[in-house]
Amino acid sequence: MEENFKMVAKTLFGFEELLEKELKQLGAQQVKKGVRNVTFVGDKGFMYKANMALRTATKILKPIHSFKIKTEQDLYDQVYKMDWTPYLKSTGSLAIDATVNSTVFTHSLYISQKTKDAIVDKFRDETGERPNVDLKFPDVKINVHIDRQSCNISLDSSGDSLHKRGYKLATNIAPINEVLAAGIIMMSGWDGQSDFIDPMCGSGTILAEAAMIACNIPPNLMRKEFAFERWSDWDVDLFEKIEESLLNKTRDFHHKIIGYDKSPSAVTKAKENIANAHLDEFVSIQHEDFFKTQRGGEAKLHMVFNPPYGERLDIEMESFYKDIGDTLKQNYPNTNAWFITSNLDALKHVGLRPSRKIHLMNAKLESRLVKYEIYAGSKKGKYMNKN
Prior knowledge:
Blueprint: E1 5-10, H1 16-26, E2 29-33, E3 37-42, H2 44-53, E4 59-68, H3 72-81, E5 93-101, H4 108-127, E6 132-133, E7 140-147, E8 150-156, H5 178-187, E9 195-198, H6 205-215, H7 236-247, E10 257-261, H8 264-276, E11 283-287, E12 301-305, H9 317-331, E13 335-341, H10 344-347, E14 356-362, E15 365-374, H11 379-386
Parallel strand pairs: 5-6, 5-7, 9-10, 9-12, 10-11, 12-13
Antiparallel strand pairs: 1-3, 1-4, 2-3, 4-8, 7-8, 13-15, 14-15
Helix pairs in contact: 2-7, 3-4, 5-6
């Protein structure tokens, strides 16, 4: 039996609860929510599974040592004392990533450098050889996390952030991060039981994530590599077994996922990305201006989108957001419409009252995820009909 160990799944602000739920559903033990992270316990196979299957995690870390420090010399001494031979060869390569929350240690790059010096010096003193730094394809990626006087050293099992799913070949001007897209769709309650539309689909990220959620397809099947594939205990047979068991849990989808964009180049890019993700049988993308569209049919429609914020696109935002509200109200009855924006002033011009408003971050931009319930007929009429 593989032994269990503690792990840390990192996530974006506001997604801790979603990630906690995902981990419990996957079968993690001792799941505990933190700030932008969730800790849990599992074995090596579960670490592989978490990297492949979690939609709202950005990294899976495996803590290997923790200690208290007061000075930079303490950091060097403690890292030097560690036995690095189970993780790294003297002829191997490493990369170090540091996160720092401290008044004493203020520069994460300096902390990375100091950690690297301690590891390299230890190997050189003991073997006469030293590992090299390789920022792109290291044998081992090490994460240093300093919170005031506590220092945690972890192995980064993911490598590149898990939002880099591997299906995106092309992006538009302001692409949405895949983890952010997946989290928003999950928060919106999308369960694959209705038609879904993204009326401003850009490079197709929301469409791809919605299709994978609807079909229960693991989000990171397309990734070229995880960092753990370079570890000395890498078990390819175990990995393939986990991958197969996840694929056996995919499910059928019997509705439509539709994307619109008024930019022909965005439509082309979105189609390329959806085809690359092998999701084109579930997703159709059309060259349409949302403001000139209306929904067909009367069944419930689920809408999620990421409209321009005015950060990188030159648009008259107030009238643009007013047009969003008008189009929803007039052309999209019986629709649950969700969108994220960091343009909080323009949001006031939608002219509809949101039934939900959730505080999120889009990169470093403070944002709101809003929900508008558009009823067929008036809202008052809806309640009259119930009685």
